[in-house]
Amino acid sequence: MAVDLVALPKAELHIHLESAISRDLANDFAARYQLPEPPRGPFPDQATFVRDYERVRDLIGSLTDLHAVAKDLAERQCAIGVRWTEVYFIPATYGDRLGSADALVETVVDGLRSGGGPDAAGIVLGINRGLSRTAAWQSLKLAKRWHGRGVVALGLAGDEAGHPAAGFEDLFAAAAEAGIPAVPHAGEGRERSWVDEGIDHLCPRRISHGLAAADDALTLARIKAMGICLDLAPSSNVLLGLVPSLPEHPLPQLFRAGIPVSLSTDIPYFLGYDLVEELRRCALAWDLSDDEIVRLSAAAWDYALCPAQVRSAALADMPQAP
Q: What is the pLDDT of residues 277-295, one digit of tens each?
């Protein structure tokens, strides 16, 4: 591998704020609040992972902590050549324990900018499927207030089986009317219909995961024709038992077939490594050529919801593979 993975201009489009906490901060918070440090997997099922994800969120005990997590993430991303990061954040899952939802968003926006500058990151403001309709509409209103001021998209996460995409169609239609792109989770598990439902009801710009579509030619044809990007997180899928191993992950086949994809870590706290290490591991597991490594990194920029000048500069600096 001759490509300098740190120097490569990268965009990471699928990473969750709480699961991007550094292990040092997690240790500090756990000691301060006398809470157990959450286990890091592997996980026998997604329900176990969700429980431990919530334990990480519980470590964040103040707006000062939240600011520190966001600032530290931006600093670490910049240090490894990630020029744009889209951070999934769901304020409603905090309830009122840290302050108002607007205060939470303002804190994360300021933390990201403090660590990486004004154009290094944006928030995908998420709706939790399992919360109330009132909470969902409040999240949409929050996204509208902060769109263009740090929020770049509206997301959707949580249990797809119990809360299908059709139940959120009206919210995402309202978001589209307001000019807010949709970046929902869909098809992280193996139920292919969930990806089609996400496409039919949410009009996504990108889909977080979409793993369930990997073996279905018709759904993949729709994704390709509509120009929807799948924000894939291979090592996360392996850690959660959704794919047996990294060499068996479908991303390289999708990429080589012309399906729009991006590569992300999703949950780096649990993985124990960042996007550079993820890219290195994937390149080795899939025998990517230097040209493929460069093209895979460049592909994310086509779908990044970043300022135009950030994209232009990154693509201008993209190396020619040796």
A: 999 999 999 999 999 999 9
Burial call 129-144: b when 16+ CB within 10 Å, e when fewer: bebeeebbebbbebbb
CA distances from 60 to 26, 111, 172, 227, 304 (A): 9, 14, 29, 37, 28
CA atoms within 13 A on the CB side of 61: 11
Q: Give 123-181 as a DSSP string.
A: EEEEEETTS-HHHHHHHHHHHHHHBTTTEEEEEEES-TTTS-GGGGHHHHHHHHHTTPP
Among the ranges given (31-35, 45-49, 232-236, 299-303), the one the predictor scored with the smallest mean pLDDT? 45-49
Q: Which amino acid is at 302?
A: D
Q: What is the rounded CA–CA span in Å between residue 94 and residue 63?
A: 11
The amino acid present at 37, given as its one-letter code, is E
Q: Enumerate residues 6+ apart whose C-beta is below 8 A from 126.
A: 88, 89, 90, 139, 154, 155, 156, 157
- Which one-letter amino acid corresponds to residue 310? V
Asked if 128 and 90 touch (Cβ cutoff 8 Å), the reply is yes
pLDDT tens digit sequence for 248-285: 999 999 999 999 999 999 999 999 999 999 999 999 99
Between CA 205 and CA 153 the distance in angstroms is 9
Rounded to the nearest integer, the mean pLDDT of the chain is: 96
The answer to whether the predicted template modeling score (pTM) of the entire model surpasses 0.85 is yes
Calpha distance 24→27 (Å, rounded): 5
Question: CB 27: neighbour CB atoms within 10 A?
Answer: 12
Note the Cα 241 to chain centre separation in Å: 18
Bond into 118 cis (ω within 30): no
- pLDDT per residue over 101-141, tens digit each? 999 999 999 999 999 999 999 999 999 999 999 999 999 99
What does the alpha-carbon distance between residue 128 and residue 10 come to, in Å, rounded to a whole number?
Answer: 28
- Output the pLDDT for position 36: 93
Residue type, 254: L
